[in-house]
Specification:
homodimer; 13 strands
């Protein structure tokens, strides 16, 4: 089995009430790949510039991430994002975005990436997502993320792309915006009506919810006393989730999806404990399994009826 | 076992995107009592005016609610609240509040109410809450709710009242405001440090979370396609929860608290399907048990480790 992700590879300048970083390795494909690497082999697809050097490649390779499809653009600079979070860490104010090499990105997938079993289309322009989806004809599960910017500016393109994937994984507010439906249950049903059989609503500090033909599942977020930087939370959630599904042979039955969400949530909980993807550096498999078992325990209800 | 609640008894004028009512039976003690009545005998304590007639008493009595401690103030008018909800139903804009007989309320409890096993101090002035708590010396579990208004205007009184109860049950935003701590885990720990051994954070459409010495539990809200009026959601949650605990002899071990939260959440989910407390009229015990079993199912994760 193998997993391909297309998305941004970036340097981020991040400021939160708990510290700051001038140039943290980031981007959706990076966060996703590092999280997924704890479960399976993953191939990120995306462009970088001359400023993306051995140190950055090394972070990925240490985790077994296959970097063959990272495209080096001679003379270019890597995508750069700068943002600042408010005291409750719920709102990121973007201070600067420099697309750089990402502005002319045309995804060119190697045979190995194209022949993946699972595909994740991270939050990029919907036409690019669709081109990649079309290159990967044989995937078992194609999933996508998106955001308010694409919903507002490229709505029709996004709807066409959604029609071609199996799973949509977005913030609950964005599912509401996409469907113009304030009720989340109805919003998820509307997205399932567009084609995808699986809809996952990310709910930030409240966890995530799953909508399939089997019904509804919801998972609270792991309770953290220390959250330093929420950057990459959603992408590490997706990486843990898709990585686990890939490790299970692409099985997406009800129980497997619930466990996949638990692993995704666990990865995201570790991610936000430190800046950027720094927590991945010393994260262990035992820590992941231990915390995901805690998640299972902290949601269990004995089903004894009232007397 | 018996359960006493002190709180408002009211008429509400409610407008939501799904309809309106000019004069719905409401108030925290009413919502709480009707929800708790599905599990145990409950005694609401609160004042009413001449406009509170047989029809209103009858709603309570049909559910077995003991109305002996509802104090009729001759020549007075019942508490009145008028509010309007926005399209997403998350924000209530208060249009009018008339305290009426509630303005001079001095809780006078009968022996039967004072000798209750469980006591709920609904969201009223904290000094009144504390007076009632002191009258009920022998309770097994005293719980309270509060709100931003009391946190801002009567903070010291509220802190004194909190020190004398076993359980605090508030909105997560209000727990943060009370403790000036943006992280909910730390906020709950801070409240437990004030005395109460149990803290429950109500999270609206995201459910509720429980903090005790045993750790953390969280329950998502039941997914509803139809929400017509959120008025009374928090009080019916508290009523279902406390009513179930009372039916279990005041036992508040980990498993019992989790089931109590599930029943509370189930009651709240029925409550918001219709205006005011109208859903209680035709709610059955079988419906409650059925939906709470669904809640148990929709949160269960098989604990199979990743391979």
């Amino acid at each position: 089995m193998s997993l391909t992700v297309v998305g941004s590879i970036a340097f981020d300048a991040i400021k939160t009430p708990f510290g700051e970083r001038d140039r943290a390795l980031g981007g959706s494909a990076v966060h996703f790949s590092l999280a997924a690497s704890f479960f399976t082999e993953v191939r990120p697809v995306g462009p970088v510039g001359d400023d993306f050097g051995d140190a950055e490649y090394e972070v990925l390779r240490r985790h077994g991430v296959v970097t063959d499809d990272i495209e080096h653009v001679e003379g270019g600079r890597t995508f750069f994002w700068s943002g600042e979070y408010e005291w409750d860490l719920n709102t990121a104010n973007t201070l600067d975005t420099q697309l750089n090499v990402f502005g002319d990105f045309e995804p060119k997938l190697s045979d190995a990436s194209r022949n993946c079993d699972l595909l994740f289309l991270a939050n990029i322009q919907p036409d690019l997502q669709r081109e990649v989806r079309e290159q990967c004809g044989g995937v078992q599960i194609a999933a996508l993320d998106s955001m308010n910017f694409w919903i507002e500016s490229t709505r029709d393109a996004l709807l066409r792309t959604i029609a071609g994937v199996d799973m949509v994984l977005m913030n609950d507010a964005e599912l509401r915006m996409l469907t113009e439906e304030p009720n989340l249950v109805k919003a998820a049903a509307a997205v399932r009506g567009m084609g995808p059989r699986i809809v996952i609503a990310k709910r930030g500090e409240y966890g995530a919810a799953l909508f399939t033909e089997d019904g509804f599942f919801a998972l609270p977020a792991y309770p953290l006393e220390t959250v330093r930087d929420p950057t990459g939370a959603g992408d590490s959630f997706a990486g843990g989730l898709m990585g686990y599904l890939d490790s299970q042979g692409g099985n997406a039955d009800g129980g497997t999806l619930r466990r996949a969400m638990t692993y995704g949530s666990t990865l995201a909980s570790f991610w936000v404990e430190e800046f950027g993807c720094e927590r991945a550096e010393r994260l262990t498999r035992d820590e992941i399994v231990g915390r995901s078992e805690q998640c299972t325990h902290m949601t269990a209800i004995d089903s004894v009826p009232a007397t």
